[in-house]
Amino acid sequence: MRAYLDKHKVGKGLRKALNIIRRGKKRYVLAASAVVVVGLGIAFVYPGCRGSGPPPKTIGADSVKTGAELGQSGEMQGASVGAGETGKDVLTLAPAHGQGVYTSDKLQADYPFNALGMHWLAQVPAGASITAEVRFSQDGSKWGKWQQVSIDDDLPDYIAKTKSAGETIGELLYTDRARFFQYRLNLKDNAAGQAPQVSRLTASYIDAKGYHQSPLSFSAIAARVAWMLSPPQAGAEPGVISRAQWGADESLMTWTPQYATPQKIIIHHTVTQNWDPDPAATVCSIYYYHAVSLGWGDIGYNYLIDPYGNVYEGRAGGA
């Protein structure tokens, strides 16, 4: 082209314009290549929403307080710690008080979390009661509202052989990247003046969204590589999201499946947020809470349904 232009005495201005266009094309190609590389890097490193990458590893921990430890921390109004029926210290009502409140110190978790479950071991005479509330904070200064802990009163028989045997089981409460939490117990006696006695209280916090794990960490990158190289996960049944698809960590499953002829079907409504932005993380949180925190060995439901109507495979061995 340049020889042709020289031969036919085309002006220098036109040749200069063509050179600018040619250099512009090179810059455009380089810029486009850079965008592609950056885009691939982000897609590779950051898992993004579920379905576009491997589910984060779910972890959890317990904050456990016995009756004696409750007496060494927190604030009591009409409550006190003293020797219970077994001789061990328990949290109960102060003398001449028909009701009382124990409020814990402001507690810091080891890492940010998205779910927390309260469960406690207590003697509660007929007519007496214990209720619990929890609130969350990201920075330990600004706190959310107190939330009532709903009690799961439809428990499987086999939990009598697990570490949470005899406990009152609170359902999970959900939050967004909280690092701090605080709980309070409301105690009330019965008409005969018999008060409840709390011997152990546990707050189980869970991170099922990967807050604890940097997307640039070796484990996160290795998990993404394995996910990219693995074949797509098949569904458990038509229209059912399999355990593998919602991210069940099968190393947490220690329950031996048992089978029986169904006689009834129970639809259990859990108190979770409406229009959950990440239902799979909620399912992972429930799974960890049931299998590990409470020691049940697996999730306590055969199937779970999110607010969008998606059905998730629950207990292992049911598909």
Write the layout of secondary structure elements.
Layout: H1 2-7, H2 12-45, E1 59-66, H3 67-71, E2 75-77, E3 79-83, E4 89-93, E5 99-103, E6 107-123, E7 129-137, E8 147-148, E9 167-169, E10 173-188, E11 197-207, H4 218-229, E12 240-241, H5 243-246, H6 279-293, E13 303-305, E14 311-313
Parallel strand pairs: 12-14
Antiparallel strand pairs: 1-11, 2-5, 3-4, 5-10, 6-9, 6-10, 6-11, 7-8, 7-10, 13-14
Quick overview of this protein structure:
It contains six helices and 14 strands. It has about 325 residues and is an alpha+beta fold.
Radius of gyration: 29 Å
Number of strands: 14
Integer average pLDDT = 82
| Through-space gap between termini | 69 Å
Q: pLDDT under 50 segments (min length 5)?
A: 1-10, 31-51
Number of helices: 6
Order of helices and strands: HHEHEEEEEEEEEEHEHHEE
Model description:
The protein is an alpha+beta fold and 319 residues long. Helices cover 24% and strands 29% of the residues. Strands 1, 2, 5, 6, 7, 8, 9, 10 and 11 form a 9-stranded antiparallel sheet that branches. It has a 3-stranded mixed sheet with strand order 12-14-13. The longest helix has 34 residues. The termini are far apart. The N terminus is likely disordered.
